[in-house]
Design goal:
The protein is of the alpha+beta class and 236 residues long. 50% of the residues lie in helices and 25% in strands. The protein has a 4-stranded antiparallel beta sheet. The chain is elongated and about 70 Å long. The termini are far apart.
């Protein structure tokens, strides 16, 4: 039978060993949690660097870099000037030929001329207005979307994986007002046209930058016995 001092000594030794084991386990758990938090922070920063996103945004967010509609103001002004010039020329010809007093269907010829010129002006403006209302261009950090239609809307989205090339076409008048048309070609040999884009060259550079951006998928890091497993990157 063990004496009392020996029992007390064994009990104290057992308690000390158990306390030491609990301390080591707690220290190891804290170390693992701190390692996970550090890796998660590095993982988030790495995602933003790979996707070239600004700080404070997550990799799943879709940032709108640019949005626009057909720029029809120069066209409206130019067509209005042409209509005014045509009206002046036709009126001068009628006065020169002395046919202003000629009646057609009980109305003077000058009135018929003014009515026709006015209808031509309205039709030309209606085309430009419908073009602006029915088209919207949205450039995001991972895609380009073109929406078309008024009553029945269609949406066409181009991702970097489906992008092939783009072309900017500008006439002399478009160069003067700094606009143009952007033609985008896809891998499926389908062309998409963005008409009357303001600052067409600048917008085309933005589209090229988004479409040529390397996007990879990153698997979240795992921790095995306090050790971090290297992050695996796979091209999309």
């Amino acid at each position: 039978m063990l004496n009392l001092p020996l029992c007390i000594s064994l009990s104290i030794s057992h308690s000390s060993a158990r306390a030491l084991w609990l301390t080591c386990s707690l220290s190891k758990c804290v170390h693992v949690q701190m390692t996970r938090a550090c890796l998660n922070t590095q993982y988030g920063i790495g995602m933003m660097q790979v996707l070239n996103l600004p700080k404070g945004t997550s990799g799943n967010s879709r940032l709108v870099l640019w949005t626009g509609k057909p720029w029809i103001l120069p066209g409206l002004v130019a067509r209005s000037i042409l209509i005014i010039v045509a009206a002046v020329v036709v009126s001068w010809l009628e006065l020169s030929l002395n046919v202003t007093n000629v009646h057609l269907l009980s109305l003077p010829l000058a009135l018929w001329t003014g009515l026709v010129i006015f209808l031509v002006w309205i039709v030309s403006l209606a085309h430009l207005l419908s073009l602006r209302v029915s088209n919207t261009y949205i450039l995001r950090n991972d895609s380009l979307e073109v929406r078309a239609g008024v009553l029945s809307s269609k949406s066409f989205v181009i991702a970097p994986a489906g992008f092939s090339d783009l072309e900017v076409t500008r006439s002399i008048s478009a160069r003067i007002v700094n606009s143009g048309n952007i033609i985008i070609r896809t891998q499926g040999e389908r062309d998409m046209r963005m008409e009357r884009v303001r600052n067409a060259l600048k917008v085309a550079d933005q589209i090229r930058e988004v479409m040529s951006r390397a996007i990879v998928s990153i698997r979240a890091p795992a921790i095995v016995e306090g050790q971090a497993v290297p992050i695996e990157k796979k091209p999309v």
